[in-house]
Amino acid sequence: MVLQGTMNHAPVRILIDSGAMGNFVSQQAVDRFSFALHDVPHIPITFANGTTGSCNKAALAAYLRFQDHEEHLDLRVVSLPHHDIILGKPWLEKWNPHIDWRNHHISFQNPDTTFLVHKLQSHVTLPERKTPLAAGYDLTPSEEFTLAPGEQQLVNTHLAIAIPPGHYGQLQARSSMAKQGIVVEGGVIDADYRGPIKIMLHNQGQQPFQFQHGDNPVAQIILIKIITPAVTEVPSLPPTNRTGGFGSTNEPLIACITAQELEHTLQPEDEMYLCEITESGIVSTNALDPRVRPLLAKYQDVFPEELPAELPPQRNIDHRIRLTPDSSPPWRPIYRMSPVELEAMRKELDKLLANGSIEPSVSPYGAPVLFIKKKDGELQMCIDYRALNNITIKNRFPIPLIDDLTDLLHGAKIFTKEDVEKTAFRTRYGHFQYRVMPFGLTNAPATFQALVQDVLRPLLDRCVVVYIDDILIYSQNEQDHTQHLQQVLDLLRQHRLYGKISKCEFFKEAVEYLGHIISTNGIATDPKKVEVVKNWSPPKNLKELQSFLGLCNYYRRFIMDYSRIATPLTDLTHKDVPYYWSPEAETAFREIKNRMTTTPVLCIPDPNLPFTVTTDASDFAVGAVLQQDQGQGPQPVAYTSRKMNPAERNYPAHDKELLAIMHALAKWRVYLHGRPFTIYSDHATLTHLKNQPNLNAKQVRWLGKMQDFDFKIVHIPGKQNIVADALSRQPDLKVLAMTRATLHHHLAKQIRQSLEQDEEFQPIIKTLQGQPVKPPIPATLLKHYSLQHGLLLYDQTRTCIPKGPLRMQILHDHHDIPTAGHQGIERTYAAVHDLFYWPRMNNEVRQYVKTCDSCQRIKASQQSPAGLLQPLPIPTKAWEQVSMDFITQLPKTKAGHDAIVVFVDTFSKMVHFAPTKTTATAPETAKLFFDCIFRLHGLPQSIVSDRDAKFTSKFWQTLFKTLGTKLAMSTAFHPQTDGQTERANRTLEDMLRAVVSYRQDDWDDHLAAAEFACNNA
């Protein structure tokens, strides 16, 4: 029985042979896939055809897999003409599988482990009956013969109509023949073939069967659709034979089918297999350049979906850890872990011990284990090697010079870039030690670079450039490039180094490498390095202009004629000069940005000189600059900044500054990985990061990524951190208010018309327009104003309102209408202040609210004597604790409501109001709770209420106990202990009294507006 499988992730044909006295691998497969061999004692070999030979080589602990079965076994190397591997009697005795020859099944003793050799899972179609197509797919004998009972014979037949493109044909017996005991061995025919076909017939009946030339069909072909145009495989089928494409032979061949892209690789008499159609979970070959698909099919073992679960071979390059003199072995205490982390660690240890990556140790060194969470939520172990790295002597390994690349790549037109994955794993628990190089060690990048350069040494500087795990293959034409790529893949296969297809680029005319764009036109600066400066928007006020000029002044010595170019901008910073963005200022702004983002300001990095990274974080963004001193002072290599997402804006200051560092490390890994550098930050506590004992989960995750870099953090005063500070505080990155009212065009028109006659604001407007006024406006006052679309703005966001009825209209809209809710002085002032400005606004708002007739009539005094009771615990997040109370005995509305249930979030003070009835039952109240609170915010940890029967009933107690919510009862007969809800009750009652009709039967119509007013105040 023949199977399709893999040996060390290379595709092989496996023959299960009960007559073989050993397990063997063919010399041809060894040569083809460069399997590692070992010397073994000499033994004589006698083959099935009577010839003899010998064997003194073996592939030890070879990783063999077919379908779901996998194992490690030793294979003797012999010359096999038709198969890659023979599994003989020792293998059968070891596993004792059950082989079902009729159904082509192999099953092992584990009932859950069954491997189907013959199983097709494809879309099957049959031609309609009584059509020429159906007749064309019937197979009739081409000769006369008799088939005796129990006999089998190869029979010549003929296929009249070709298999359509995108399909292949499967042989199947006619039902009329099957009833008489005639069985047809299965087989397949590929697309576009028609002509003679040899099929194997079995007579399993009791009588001989006579076949006539051109008589009734003995078999038929059904069509099976090929799902993808790439290499298409189904499990192995029983032997069949046919001509056309493969040639003709009297011996049965294994049936086969290939994709159209690989038809040119098929040779006469090739033995092929049809395997199950699958779709790759990594990268579809259809998305790759068609020129590389044949190579990927040939070298699929170099790009495995999973790395082999075995030790890598012995390398010429070994990793060494050399410590500083007089250093003592670091021994760090084990970090406490949750049960989930302990279970994950135990599974990882079992896995690493099984594949030989680690072993028990009695070493005096000991590093603790940390856990980080991947993007998919899976836990990953990480070793805290900070103490060991601090005392390790750093290796230095040079990266290629950009100038050298220019010479090496001169004339190259075709490029391919690859990322090589390391085969090591990282973990540390109890006392184990690695047998392979783990991640996280400070010199690991240099060791790996030395290894890759040693492997690719025959091709270095001829067609390959290497930096750590980046391989750049360059050629002058496609033909040479295909040959160069094949040579690199051969070396990777020989040394068992693997690539990740999703991180590779093939046959490109331009690629990004080491922070530069390499193409047929030479080497250019990567636009991503300077886009943060190029996209800088014009400053809207003096403060934003000063921030931009601070960045420019830092590099002004590299900009020719900087003072002359920047004059229109620097003039705006002078005392008593109004801020007016003129066309001259815009021209100067664009010219400076252009010069800031081109050489000689932006320097070409020299890998032999150290880099510095300066980072900073504001409340809403992070920024960084990569610099290098090449003899003229620090020059920028690249800039970067980005906005924080909502979650990041909630980070404490320490984590925000750490986020800026992580962003810079990820952005400039190609420059910083594998070499020492310095990070400057104005956050002093970061200098102790490598020795910080207590880390939160986020810091642990970041620390695991930082261990790949060799850096030190140096504190720099904030006043000296000019560039990174400016990058993190760009106006485009600033987070504005979550909601911002927009002026209605009618109101904006009224404001413009009123401003033309306003004596208070006209002098300011004329000064901004460049007209002289007497007396002149002081610069300290003028700097707050700007003109935009005919409106006068104060501090860029607040519209100036002239004297007159417009101010009263704005106060009315922010206090009297239902959605304003007749709020008090402070809340009304805050609402108006966010959008508008006029002098002495606070006094006018105070006077307006105090003289509001509705407020004086309906609002009760809020003063009450102080009590002795203790407040409830303060919650730590929104909707963790909810206060609930009723306002009852209200006038009945048209909908029949006479009560209101009030929900208040203790943390955020957000409220929800719901109309109900004084006679509402406990289930009805529970429904209101779910509709108003649970639907929007989930269940709180506790609910505060008074001793109302609705809350103390058995229903509530049972409900909260089931849901895990604790009912925190307030002090008996003292509703002010739940002061938040009582205060909300009074506010709501005041609002409703101000808007309810004289009949007081429509108050439930105003609850939504009142809720909006309370939550928006």
Write a concise synopsis of the structure shown:
The chain is an alpha+beta fold and 1017 residues long. The chain contains 32 helices and 48 strands. 28% of the residues lie in helices and 24% in strands.
Note down, in words, how this protein is organized.
28% of the residues lie in helices and 24% in strands.
Might you state the CATH topology name of the domain at 531-733? Nucleotidyltransferase, domain 5
**Mean residue pLDDT:** 72
CATH architecture of the domain at 531-733: 2-Layer Sandwich
Portion in helices: 25-40%
Question: Top keywords for this entry?
Answer:
single chain, 1017 residues, alpha+beta, Cathepsin D, subunit A, domain 1, Deoxyuridine 5'-Triphosphate Nucleotidohydrolase, Chain A, Nucleotidyltransferase, domain 5, six-stranded mixed β-barrel, five-stranded antiparallel sheet, 48 strands
List the helices and strands and how they pair.
Elements: E1 2-7, E2 10-16, E3 24-26, H1 27-33, E4 38-46, E5 52-66, E6 69-78, E7 85-87, H2 89-95, E8 98-100, E9 105-107, E10 114-116, E11 124-125, H3 132-136, E12 138-139, E13 145-147, E14 152-159, E15 167-173, H4 175-178, E16 182-184, E17 188-189, E18 195-203, E19 209-211, E20 219-225, E21 239-242, E22 253-254, H5 293-298, H6 339-354, E23 358-360, E24 369-373, E25 379-383, H7 386-390, H8 402-408, E26 414-421, E27 432-434, H9 444-455, E28 464-467, E29 470-475, H10 478-494, E30 498-499, E31 505-508, E32 510-513, E33 516-519, E34 522-525, H11 531-534, H12 542-554, H13 562-565, H14 567-570, H15 583-596, E35 611-617, E36 621-629, E37 634-643, H16 646-649, H17 653-667, H18 669-672, E38 676-681, H19 697-706, E39 710-715, H20 722-728, H21 745-757, H22 762-768, H23 779-782, E40 785-788, E41 791-794, E42 798-800, H24 805-813, H25 825-833, E43 836-837, H26 841-850, H27 853-858, E44 881-887, E45 899-905, E46 911-916, H28 922-937, E47 942-945, H29 949-952, H30 954-963, E48 966-969, H31 979-995, H32 1007-1016
Helix pairs in contact: 12-20, 17-19, 25-26, 31-32
